Amino acid sequence: MAAVPSMTHMLRFNGCESLNKVSLLIFGVNSINKKKLSQTITKLSTNFDVKIQISDYLFPEKDKNPFQFNVDYICFVADISQKESLKRVTDSMKFIDAKYFLSRACLVVHIPNGCRENFSIELESINHLAKNYNLMTIFGNLEKGADKVSTQLLRLVEIACGFKKNGKNSLLLSLV
Length: 176
Known about the structure:
With 176 residues, this protein is an alpha/beta fold. Helices cover 26% and strands 18% of the residues. The chain has helices at residues 34-43, 83-92, 123-132, 146-160; strands at 21-27, 49-55, 73-79, 105-110, 136-140.
């Protein structure tokens, strides 16, 4: 029997480069301030080193070989004022190994200033996406509140990668 080619291009890394090291991928459209999020994550003190990769696209080009990242945790970032950002996150899900969606990925929803009432994306579609892919969701402003979002994100990464001693279920974090 011939093997069926997989649509999954981003497979979960099964080994560790070294102890106390985490590779984090922050993915979202170009207009979202992902760089500021990554800078605030690196400024926070942790018991482990965080290597951060920022990406705008996860789609392999048709004429090139599929690529693979060595990533321990994926952070999808969507802007609630841009429909394109959630569409790109949703479209990229089919290129990712399903093992990431077992507590190895989260969704950060950026709420820009002055956009508290006029959302381009309905909250129901965000909740539907998070529920379908088992994603923890963090709502926040990446321009002014990047430190709070970074702290919550690092807490999720710490538990998912096994650095938090006596770490309970990550669903308990939503209560804090």
